[in-house]
Each structure stands twice: as C-alpha cells, then as structure tokens.
Amino acid sequence: MRPARTVFGVWVCLMLVACAPSTDYSDLQEFMAQVDARPPPRTEPLPPIETVAPFSYLASTQRSPFEPPVVLKRVDRQSGPKVTPDLNRVKQFLEQYPIGQLSMVGTLAQGAEIYGLIQDADGGVHRVQSGDFMGTDHGQIERISDIRINLIEIVPDGIGGWVERERAVSLTSGV
Description:
By secondary structure, the protein is α+β, with helices and mostly antiparallel strands. The protein contains 2 helices and 7 strands. The protein has a domain at 93-170: Roll (SH3 type barrels). A hairpin with a 5-residue loop joins β6 (148-156) and β7. The protein is elongated, with a radius of gyration of 39 Å.
C-alpha cells in the first residue's frame, strides 16, 4: 500500500510541475505592443436627436376608465322594472363574438319576413331574424331594415345591476 502512495505522490508532483507557467512572455508582450501601436478605430458620430412635437391630451375632460359609468336613468331597484339577462338560456352562435366584430352585409326577404345577413370575424355569413341574439352583451334583435339591424343589449350598470342599451349594426359596403 505504501508503494502505491509514493507513486501517487510523485505523479501529483509531476502534474503540478507540468502546469507551472513558463516565464517567457516575450511573444505575448510583442503582440500587445503591436496592438497598442495601431491607431484607434474611428467612431461614427451619434445621429442627431429628433425633436418630437408636444402632445396635448384631449381626453382630460372625459370620464376616467377607472371610475364606474354614470347612469343617467336611475331605476329604483325595489319598485322599478328589473332588467336581467337570462343566463340559463342556450346561447346562439353569434353570441360568441363582440358586436364590434360583426357586420351586416345584406338582407333577404321571404314573403313579409326580412332576414339580416351578418358576417362574423372569421368570415362566415349567418342569417338572423327578429328575436335572435347576437353579441357578447345579451343583444336581442328588435328590428331589421335594409340598412340596419337594431338590437337591445343588457349590460351591467356599474353598480351591481343591469340596464338596457340600444345598439345598431349598419350595412357595410363591400370591400
């Protein structure tokens, strides 16, 4: 066991001697002198600073988006009509799209009944009639004309209740 320890000790000493740095740095010092003798590279000047016209904020007189909306018609919740959406009703296909993503592209007439043609955000065209629902705010179609679909939406009033709001989807010109 002792000879193995001796051999291991000699081997470690040889490895340490082999890793010792050499004292001849002349080639490195010569390279550093060459690099220092070179002229410094030319630095491009910074581009001129563009002046930006001042911006005047024009919406300062409007309601902050962090405040609840002002409801002009306050209905006494105890005695007035209670407006609530039917949350148990089976949703129709066009209720998955916000009203802003739906556009009226035409009408169809069959007898006295007028149907509206609505294009959704995915490009599909759907036939709707009075009484159908569309939009994410529980909008029910009241009337369809040649140029507009009028509907009533039931939206939160900002204080825990619901309020009805009139909305219209107008005919868009073909692109």
